[in-house]
Amino acid sequence: MPVEVLMPALSPTMETGKLAKWMVKEGDSIAAGDVIAEIETDKATMEVETVDDGVVGRILIDAGAEDVPVGTPIALVLSEGESADDLAAECAKPAPAPPAKPAEEAGDKADKKDKAPKAAARTPAPAAMSAVKDPDIPSGTEMTDMTVREALRDAMAEEMRRDGDVFVMGEEVAEYQGAYKVTQGLLEEFGARRVIDTPITEHGFTGLGVGAAFAGLKPIVEFMTFNFAMQAIDQIINSAAKTHYMSGGLVNCPIVFRGANGAAARVAAQHSQNFASWYAHVPGLKVVAPYSAADAKGLLKAAIRDPNPVIFLESEILYGHSFDVPRLDDYVVPIGKAKILREGTDVTLAGYSYAVVYMLEAAELLAEQGISAEVIDLRSLRPLDVETIVASVKKTNRLVAVEESWPVCGIGAELAALMMEHAFDHLDAPVMRVTGRDVPMPYAANLEKLALPSAADVVEAAKAVCYR
Amino acid sequence: MAASKPAGKSSAVKTSKRSKKSAPVMTPEEELSAYREMLMIRRFEEKAGQLYGMGLIGGFCHLYIGQEAVVIGMQMALEEGDQLVTSYRDHGHMLAAGMDPKEIMAELAGKQGGSSRGKGGSMHMFSPEKGFYGGHGIVGAQVPLGAGLAFANQYRGNDRVSVTYFGEGAANQGQVYETFNMAALWNLPVIFVIENNRYAMGTSVTRAAAGAEELFNRGSAYGIQGEQVNGMNVREVREAGARAAALCRAGKGPYILEMRTYRYRGHSMSDPAKYRTREEVQKMRSESDPIDQAREWLLGSGYATEDSLKQIDKEIRGIVNEAAEFAQIDREPDSSELYTDIYVEETAHAG
Lengths: 468, 351
Hints:
The complex is a heterodimer of chains A (about 475) and B (about 350).
Chain A: E1 3-6, E2 16-22, E3 29-30, E4 35-40, E5 45-49, E6 54-59, E7 65-69, E8 73-78, H1 84-92, H2 109-114, E9 143-147, H3 148-162, E10 166-170, H4 186-190, E11 195-197, H5 202-214, E12 218-225, H6 226-229, H7 233-241, H8 243-246, E13 256-260, H9 276-280, E14 286-288, H10 293-305, E15 310-314, E16 322-326, E17 339-342, E18 347-351, H11 355-368, E19 373-377, E20 380-382, H12 386-396, E21 399-402, H13 411-422, E22 432-434, H14 445-451, H15 455-465
Chain B: H1 28-53, H2 68-77, E1 83-86, H3 91-97, H4 101-108, E2 132-135, H5 142-156, E3 162-167, H6 174-185, E4 190-196, E5 199-200, E6 203-204, H7 205-208, E7 225-230, H8 234-249, E8 255-260, H9 278-288, H10 290-301, H11 306-329
Parallel strand pairs in B: 1-2, 1-3, 3-4, 4-8, 7-8
Antiparallel strand pairs in B: 5-6
Helix pairs in contact in B: 1-2, 1-3, 1-10, 1-11, 2-3, 2-8, 4-11, 5-6
């Protein structure tokens, strides 16, 4: 029976890719280890090697095909002793379906427990929430469809064109074009003086960046992920955050620390931590965690211009997702302002980064059940836009705080405390938190799914505070 | 206690490939200036110790007494615009950089007129104007920061040099080697000055450092040249510093200078100093004191007289007393200072 060659995944988060090129044609003999094709995502290009010996019997997906789901058969290989007749038999069978996309059916708790979906299922629903007008964007502004990854790159490129003191440094940011391709093209435009590959020494290069910022340069330090920044957290907190205060205002530190933060997919405990509340705890730091591409762009530009150290937390899962980004010459989103993504009257949902995906899905499901949810993307965690959250709670009288981080001492805990202080008399129910579970992130797909919050959890919490 | 001999007093101590030349040329004015500035540090630190004992200075207070030749010699080798950064034993560096003794003493006392308006204290003072970038309380943290200053110089294409001071204790920190690697890889114009005063708090260098006698070699794996210097002799320090600075300015940095020095006082004011003998300290003071050496040279060569040196001493005591007086009468920072300088352009408070 001919062997199926399946569309491989380049990374744990890849869902689809482009079959860029076939290196073999039907009838070619191949041996294990031969490169038979090239596939591409927006992030990377990889060669596909065969693990089988035989003859290429049939090519099922043509070169140039876009958005081929991972796991789709792309070719059939005939083993020794097989012939084209076997192919015919194979093709007579029903075409193999791409692996079922595990539905994140929010209302269905059983689904969560019983299935072991691929982590790649963490696909946000398209952000169709244009119901609320964005006050940051002039009406009539033309929009461009852009991924978060491209938006981040454009923000850096625009600021580097604008200010010669801005440079980017980190592991694989230059010649490799970024471990997650966020710095793609920057080396070509700005050269090795301003796009700097560092050794794998977070503590050292973070301190070096802080020293350069003390001297007045404006470094963007990329952490491949914030998990690795724990090696450097002393320099971030003791040197970057505190020096302005300790110097009585004589020295400041205009630096941006950016990179992927929080759960990606199937990378287990050491590579999945959300550090939002760690950094938001620290006076002297600003902390932002955008969800959409427009905010990623506008907030990163603001962060680069900010004279203070800014922690810029990105979501690896969102890198590849597209949003409308205003086509403006200089789109800057001020740090410290939350954004109401959907207006509602019955309950306020407030969260940041990937949690916004759960909130938007939940709001949709709640609407079907007659509950009107207001969705607030916090965007900035320090300073927090307390005013916007309180105003919303005064209207809805209920708050559900949503995040992927652990619950203890998290952003949700902070929101709950703030509501006690600022909106106690307006609350009709206790503030509830929807968070990641209080466990190190497990590797197994089913356990990982259990460890993360879901839209269903948000729906459940929202109904609870509405006494429904 | 052979290990505690300073480099200059022991013919057995290995120095780098560079042979020690004859006594470096210093003009009489420079000799006098070095003497004066070292004495300034000495008297300032003695006064700080006294004020600490009176309860006017709180917290930690790490005195530089004994090590004066290191920072003064280095500073004489630098040019306007060069930068320096160091650890928490920083009073001497600030004086050497030209900061006002009054604002340093007031900062020690936690007063409004302190250089950080009372918010930094002994370990955290800064003066970008004088090229002084702290004053850092975490052992070793200033090393990548100093390399960052050098990076900025290289980025801007100026020929400034960053002098990054750290102790022999900090020389065991991992981030020092991360920094050596990058500094060598990128040829950063940074002079790493290891102030080897032989004790990391209470642990002697031989108990904490492998290869304790050759710390200047710690960059050899990265191809960083280094040499050992008698840090008790201001002329030898100055000569080595000038050589290192010239190399850095010529794009041949980084460079390591291991200064063999000695602190007479405890690690901090609260150190009972049980880890070394009184005799050891006394021997260093009587045989290797940097200020006595300078004094003897000045008197021996006829560039100064007992009277002229007495006059200098009197002037310095005057400056130090004035600083101490200011620190005592100056007011504490206004309570509103609690919330200033957290951010540049204050943002709305988070709650």
